[in-house]
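Exercise 3.2. Students should predict the tertiary structure of the chain below and write it as structure tokens, then compare their answer with the key that follows.

Predict this chain's 3D structure.
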Amino acid sequence: MSTARRPTSSPIAALGVLLVAVALGVLAARHRSARPPVAAIELAPEPEETREAGPLDLNVADADALQALPRIGPALARRIVEDREVNGPFASVEDLDRVRGIGPATIERLRALVRVGDPTSSPE
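Answer key:
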């Protein structure tokens, strides 16, 4: 019959495990505190020309001019121009709701910044 001896745990081994755990905890704490703080996102101010020129005419503005409006990026500006080309000029600011991606909240946000002029007028 073989007598297998159970390894005895030594206080030195237990102390080693404890030291490794503490070292890992210190490293983790340093890593968390070493990360740079997250900067706040700053929104760019509206371009000067948009504010001074008055409301932008939806029936003559090109995609670049439409991108000067808040929350109107290249894709949405392109859809506004394409909708105007396919469905004809906008009769009112509310007609923007026919453009995919523009809803009531966006229309209200843009109401003071856009207008609907004569579709035969020349771009400003």
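Discussion points: Residues 55 and 112 are 7 Å apart (CA to CA). The chain is about 45% helix and 5% strand.
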